[in-house]
Write a structure and sequence with these properties.
Number of domains: 1
Shape: globular
Distance between the termini: 43 Å
Radius of gyration: 16 Å
Length: about 200
């Protein structure tokens, strides 16, 4: 792994580790987002505060931090862009500022799609929206979307990117393991349900 790739990975990690959900909710004067619902710093848990605007802003910023890292790193080539995206994703999941306890990466995954293979973002969004509409489970919608997206990317003739998103999705599935248990037990919180 050359220096450029390592620098892109580190740069992406630093951008990705900015905890926008926590920052926005603190600025808005709500309780610590980590003390409600799933304890997650992502948009779905922010929505449990009842503040839809904060949740939307969190979703947007958590996605765009990955997109920004990728677009900047593209100046040094596609491999650097992929490394920056992976770094941003890992930074969101394991931010150094929060003792390596961050989000589950769904918005950041989408931000990586927008930066690296934007047509696949429509596949992700369609799968997420359809599943969320039918079940009202944000976690299940994310899991389904991340399972289908790498296949769509592979069908687009981008095997390296398909492998990257398969790996990112696998990590996010692992981060969702408590959600998966609650889905099986039918105790998972639904979209719009307050913490």
């Amino acid at each position: 792994m050359n220096t450029t790739i390592l620098l892109a990975l580190a740069f992406g990690y630093l951008l990705g580790s900015i905890p926008f959900g926590l920052i926005l909710t603190r600025l808005a004067g709500t309780q610590d987002i980590r003390s409600i619902g799933s304890g997650n710093i992502g948009a779905t848990n922010v929505l449990r505060t009842g503040r839809k605007g904060l949740a939307a802003a969190t979703l947007l910023l958590d996605g765009l931090k990955a997109t920004a890292a990728i677009l900047i790193a593209k100046n040094w080539g596609m491999e650097a862009a992929m490394a920056a995206g992976a770094g941003a994703f890992l930074g969101h999941l394991f931010p150094v500022w929060l003792g390596f306890k961050g989000g589950k990466g769904v918005a950041t995954y989408l931000g990586c799609l927008l930066g690296l293979v934007w047509p696949a973002a429509f596949v992700f969004a369609a799968a997420w929206l359809a599943t969320a509409f039918l079940t009202r489970y944000s976690s299940l919608a994310a899991l389904v979307a991340m399972a289908l997206t790498p296949l769509a990317i592979w069908l687009m003739g981008q095997p390296a990117l398909a492998a990257l998103f398969l790996a990112l999705g696998a990590v996010s599935w692992w981060m969702h393991r408590a959600n998966i248990r609650r889905l099986i037990d039918r105790t998972e919180g639904r979209i719009g349900q307050k913490g």
